[in-house]
Amino acid sequence: MKTVLIGVGQAGGKLTRELVDFDDRMEFGAVLDAVAVNSAKADLQEIPFETVLVGQDRVKGHGVGGDNELGADVMQSDKTEVLSALDDSVSAEAEAIFVVAGLGGGTGSGGAPVLVKELKRIYDVPVYALGILPGRNEGAMYQVNAGRSLKTVAREADSLLLVDNDAFRSSGESLEQGFDAINRAIAQRVGLLFASGEAVEGVAESVVDSSEVINTLRSGGIAALGYAAAESAEDAEGNINTVMSTTRRALLTGTSLPEASKADSALLVIAGEPDTIPRKGVERARRWVEEETGSLQVRGGDFPLRSGRIASLILLGGVERSDRLEAFMQRAKDAVKEAKEAEEREDPADAWSNDELDDLI
Predict the structure, then answer these.
(1) Where is the composition biased (Basic and acidic residues) (predicted)?
(2) Is 183 annotated to bind ligand?
(3) Is 172 annotated as a binding residue?
(4) Binding site annotation covers 107?
(5) What digits encode the pLDDT tens for the residues 116-169?
(6) Residue 320's closest CA among 333, 310, 329?
(7) Which of these, 26, 92, 266, 271, is most buried using a 10 Å CB contact count?
(8) Is 234 annotated as a binding residue?
(9) Which fold would CATH assign to domain 3-195?
(10) Is 188 annotated as a binding residue?
């Protein structure tokens, strides 16, 4: 899928850089162009593609300090500059636009919904968001920001592909090491999704193309992405069980939003050497995904890839019923309540009276 990426905020810029690097390294050619947008000048200095600094008149290049309402304001004020930077990027070849943002910070969580709304008004291609949920240990402000931003961007985007940081974090890692590892893992999964249907090694027996991705996300709302891989046997017959086991792991333990297994639609992509992908195994795995997700809209196909491994990639559309998502929203609401109680103790006259997770815009 030919895609244009827009990284908003620090987390969004870093993940976009990883996605561009992965696509270049694999020589997929799925990422047509990328732009990074931020209110903090320092966060743009190591970005190797075009950048746009927003909010200079308000925050002087120092960032919005986690204030996502200010992040929304500066993006609204400077949206013309951002859109101008995209003039040469969103060509007739583009099949989708992805706005990439961390939902817990200020610029990303506030600015991404504003930008998504404006992009949908201007362009005919689908405008998706790739949003990153903060981990449990990232502080109450990040939980509140993400709860509010999630509601808004899910409403504005054609679909919100959601990634929970806690799904990828390994014990013993520092916060910075954890984020770097998370970004690499996300870039691998999402990069393979973008590359589906592109010109790669070999010829797929059952081709996955961009329309399959777009149709899976068509229902809107929240989406998730699952992935698992294993060593491949030398022939297709020896990989029937491998395809089944990687598909089960991708859905049950390998999704970007843990415990999200019920979905309105799904796409199963089996990647590997063409001669090692078993038709019987792929069809059996597709039927299993139908039963497990409760969806009758399960698409499937091959992704020829020069590799000694077999990988299962599962895109899930419409996962709003996820227990993990419900638990996160409750965590965000609890954080709002705690912040309100703390402010009341400090200065009742200035208490934060809104204890709901209202939309940002």
Answers:
(1) 334-343
(2) yes
(3) no
(4) yes
(5) 999 999 999 999 999 999 988 888 889 989 988 999 999 999 999 999 988 887
(6) 329
(7) 266
(8) no
(9) Rossmann fold (3.40.50)
(10) no
